């Protein structure tokens, strides 16, 4: 009776003491995995069978043919047969331990050389990865094959060395072919990954274009309706609010077009939209927050100097994200923004006080938040630290290099 497998650790039912399961449904892909395992099993058995065949041939040659008269250093009886059998047995390990098996065969060959030396020379050239060790082993095998202790003629030495180097060259050729196939396979994998990356960038650009079309349509309608409300409204406060709403919508359209332009530029590997260096300007963010009823104090310390476009966008997003978090989580809180220019760095500190009332309107979430902002800052070799304040407020401190590189596809957008 054959026990059926159970789910307890993959052990047979008879081992676990559980009753046999009459039928078990195979998991998806189990047939493919079974076929792969069968192929691997057959390949390993075929390789082992070939190694046994090579060892048998070496033993047969060693028993029937002697490598010259007085080939061995020791003239013990039956040493020839023992050397042939031992060398053939060592050839079974020429794949798993080529250097160790070759060194052992070389040692046996110094006592009494057999034809297994030629097979070991091939394995040294084909299977030993360390070239220094391989050539050292090849040298020992060639010495054992030429038998200098028997004082052969110079022509015999050249002939024996040449005969021993033939399998060495064949093994080196096989190793080179193997490395070439591995390099080609790696190149195919790299090309496939590059193809996937290219498709991903093209899909990203396509999605960015669709988002641009959808969002700009809705925001454009909002801007048009705000402009119409400003024209038709009689109350001056309503007209001012409509004008602010229209300006915010226009600013959102401008930023959206810039983001889409950067996303589309990444379709070309290694390219990015690069603009001129400019001084950081967050006055529009401050004005927008003030118009929403949040008191914001902006202080600039040091001599402002232009920053690269990458750093400028990252610094702008730092202030924008900080003010957005105040709008979401700290209504009524005061905000203090400090832009400190120190050497080649720009230090941005955004500190808000404790909220004075509960959240009125849920603005929603789903963005990357501070985690995405931290990644954006780190992409330009900057640092970002956040911490709560003892009075219930919150502080954000970002340090950015003024001259970060601008030609990288990993640039934050």
TrEMBL record:
<keyword id="KW-0547">Nucleotide-binding</keyword>
<keyword id="KW-0812">Transmembrane</keyword>
<dbReference type="GO" id="GO:0046983">
    <property type="term" value="F:protein dimerization activity"/>
</dbReference>
<feature type="transmembrane region" description="Helical">
    <location>
        <begin position="100"/>
        <end position="124"/>
    </location>
</feature>
<dbReference type="GO" id="GO:0000155">
    <property type="term" value="F:phosphorelay sensor kinase activity"/>
</dbReference>
<keyword id="KW-0597">Phosphoprotein</keyword>
<keyword id="KW-1133">Transmembrane helix</keyword>
<keyword id="KW-0418">Kinase</keyword>
<feature type="transmembrane region" description="Helical">
    <location>
        <begin position="157"/>
        <end position="176"/>
    </location>
</feature>
<keyword id="KW-0808">Transferase</keyword>
<protein>
    <recommendedName>
        <fullName>histidine kinase</fullName>
        <ecNumber>2.7.13.3</ecNumber>
    </recommendedName>
</protein>
<keyword id="KW-0067">ATP-binding</keyword>
<feature type="domain" description="Signal transduction histidine kinase subgroup 3 dimerisation and phosphoacceptor">
    <location>
        <begin position="203"/>
        <end position="265"/>
    </location>
</feature>
<feature type="transmembrane region" description="Helical">
    <location>
        <begin position="73"/>
        <end position="93"/>
    </location>
</feature>
<feature type="transmembrane region" description="Helical">
    <location>
        <begin position="48"/>
        <end position="67"/>
    </location>
</feature>
<dbReference type="InterPro" id="IPR011712">
    <property type="entry name" value="Sig_transdc_His_kin_sub3_dim/P"/>
</dbReference>
<keyword id="KW-0472">Membrane</keyword>
<dbReference type="GO" id="GO:0016020">
    <property type="term" value="C:membrane"/>
</dbReference>
<dbReference type="InterPro" id="IPR036890">
    <property type="entry name" value="HATPase_C_sf"/>
</dbReference>
<feature type="domain" description="Histidine kinase/HSP90-like ATPase">
    <location>
        <begin position="314"/>
        <end position="402"/>
    </location>
</feature>
<dbReference type="InterPro" id="IPR003594">
    <property type="entry name" value="HATPase_dom"/>
</dbReference>
<dbReference type="InterPro" id="IPR050482">
    <property type="entry name" value="Sensor_HK_TwoCompSys"/>
</dbReference>
<keyword id="KW-0902">Two-component regulatory system</keyword>
<dbReference type="GO" id="GO:0005524">
    <property type="term" value="F:ATP binding"/>
</dbReference>
<dbReference type="Pfam" id="PF02518">
    <property type="entry name" value="HATPase_c"/>
</dbReference>
<dbReference type="Pfam" id="PF07730">
    <property type="entry name" value="HisKA_3"/>
</dbReference>
């Amino acid at each position: 009776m054959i026990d059926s497998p159970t789910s307890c650790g993959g052990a047979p039912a008879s081992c676990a003491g559980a009753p046999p399961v009459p039928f078990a449904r195979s998991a998806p892909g189990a047939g493919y995995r079974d076929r792969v395992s069968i192929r691997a099993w057959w390949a390993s058995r075929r390789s082992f069978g070939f190694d046994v065949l090579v060892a048998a041939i070496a033993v047969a040659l060693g028993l029937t043919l002697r490598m010259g008269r007085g080939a061995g250093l020791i003239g013990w009886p039956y040493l020839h047969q023992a050397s042939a059998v031992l060398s053939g047995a060592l050839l079974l390990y020429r794949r798993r331990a080529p250097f160790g098996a070759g060194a052992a065969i070389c040692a046996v060959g110094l006592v009494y050389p057999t034809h297994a030396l030629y097979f070991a020379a091939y394995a040294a050239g084909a299977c030993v990865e360390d070239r220094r060790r391989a050539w050292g082993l090849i040298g020992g095998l060639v010495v054992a094959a030429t038998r200098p202790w028997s004082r052969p003629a110079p022509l015999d030495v050249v002939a024996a060395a040449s005969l021993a180097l033939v399998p060495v060259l064949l093994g080196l050729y096989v190793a080179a072919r193997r490395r070439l196939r591995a390099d080609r396979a790696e190149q195919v994998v790299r090309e496939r990954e590059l193809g996937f990356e290219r498709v991903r960038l093209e899909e990203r650009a396509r999605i960015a274009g669709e988002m641009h079309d959808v969002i700009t349509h809705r925001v454009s309608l909002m801007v048009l309706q705000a402009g119409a409300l400003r024209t038709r409204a009689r109350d001056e406060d309503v007209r001012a609010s409509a004008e602010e709403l229209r300006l915010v919508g226009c600013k959102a359209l401008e930023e959206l077009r810039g983001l889409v332009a950067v996303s589309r530029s990444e379709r070309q590997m290694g390219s990015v939209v690069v603009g001129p260096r400019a001084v950081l300007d967050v006055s529009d963010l401050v004005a927008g927050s003030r118009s929403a009823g949040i008191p914001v104090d902006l202080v600039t310390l040091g001599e402002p100097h232009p920053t690269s476009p990458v750093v400028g966008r990252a610094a702008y997003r730092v202030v924008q994200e900080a003010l957005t978090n105040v709008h979401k989580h700290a209504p009524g809180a005061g905000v203090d923004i400090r832009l400190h220019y120190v050497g080649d760095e720009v230090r941005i500190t955004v500190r808000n006080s404790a909220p004075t009332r509960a959240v009125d309107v849920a603005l929603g979430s789903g963005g990357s938040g501070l985690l995405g902002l931290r990644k954006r800052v780190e992409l330009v070799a900057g640092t970002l630290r956040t911490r709560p304040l003892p009075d219930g407020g919150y502080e954000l401190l970002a340090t950015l290099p003024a001259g970060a590189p601008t030609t990288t596809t990993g640039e934050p957008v």
